[in-house]
Structure formats: C-alpha cells, structure tokens
TrEMBL record:
Domain (Alpha/beta hydrolase fold-3) ranges: 1-133
SUPFAM superfamilies assigned: alpha/beta-Hydrolases
One Pfam family named in its UniProt record: Abhydrolase_3
Superkingdom of this protein's organism: Eukaryota
The protein, known as: ADCL4 protein
Annotated TM spans: none
Keyword Transcription belongs to the record: no
Classification via InterPro entries: AB_hydrolase_3, AB_hydrolase_fold, GDXG_lipolytic_enzyme
Length: 159
C-alpha cells in the first residue's frame, strides 16, 4: 500500500528506501510486527555496504502503526554499538499512547475522520491481542492498574 510514496521519497531525496512488509494484526499478534521490523532493520544495517548506503545517514520512518514500530525499533537500536547509529526517526501520526484514551488530544479529536477515538482503541486492542471484547474498559481507562497510572502520570496525563 505504500510502494508509491516510498518510491517518491526515494526519488525526491535521492536515497534508498527500505519498506518492511511486516506481519499484520489481528492474525499476527504483538510482538510479530515489531520483531519483523527489528530483524529487517538489523539485517539492513549489518549489510549496509551491499546497498551502497552511507551508514551515517540511516533514518527510520513510519506512519500510524508503522510509526509505533519505527519508534520501538529506534529505541531498541539506540544503545547498540555493533550497528551504525541512527541519524533520525520520522514518526507520522504514530500510535504511541494507549494508556489513556481520555487525554485532551483524544477528546478534542474524538470525531475527526479517519481515526476516531473508538477506532484507535480498537486498533490498539487488535495489535496487542487481537480481541476487541474489552473495548469499553480501554475507553474508560480501567484497563490500566491504578499503580501503573500513578507511575506514568508524569508522562501520560493532561498536563
């Protein structure tokens, strides 16, 4: 689905673009997609001379669920001394936060097409366990234990 835009980016930026065809939810639950992206990235980075790419110019990018995966892969690779260092990550409307679907951004954009608040929660559940039976609990925020909510309120909160 992204071949045309990847070709455009490669052509306009005069760069090599590698697009990973990772396994999709709900058929393949977490961490399948993450493992696919991580393994493909590591393979690319270990064989970079084969692709004629400057190791100092590697950027990881993704949109939506791919933005989530790009962020996770970037974090995993950040401390690796056996691989080239990433130059940057580009996250386009990434799915990064599923702790609280009642934060101001979710409330303000709850009716904005295409990714309605309920749809975002549905996709998060599909990604994690392929089961949307607990949708109401997720929307209410009762899927997170109170002690975890307290622990992360500094980073995930309306402030």
């Amino acid at each position: 689905s992204h071949e045309k835009i990847c070709r455009y980016i490669a052509r306009e930026s005069e760069s090599v673009v590698v697009s990973v065809g990772y396994r999709l939810a709900p058929e393949h639950k977490y961490p399948a997609a993450y493992e696919d992206c991580l393994n493909a990235t590591i393979h690319f980075m270990k064989n970079i001379e084969h692709y004629g790419v400057d190791p100092a110019r590697i950027i990881i990018c993704g949109d939506s669920a791919g933005g989530n995966l790009a962020a996770a892969v970037s974090q995993t690779l950040a401390g690796r001394s056996d691989l080239p260092r990433l130059r940057a990550q580009i996250l386009i409307y990434p799915g990064l936060q599923a702790l609280d679907f009642n934060l101001p951004s979710y409330q303000q954009n709850r009716g904005v097409p295409l990714l309605f608040r309920e749809r975002a929660a549905f996709f998060a559940l599909q990604y994690l366990n392929g089961d949307a039976l607990h949708m109401q609990e997720v929307l209410e925020g009762s899927h997170i234990p109170p002690d975890m909510r307290l622990k992360y309120r500094k980073w995930v909160g309306p402030d």
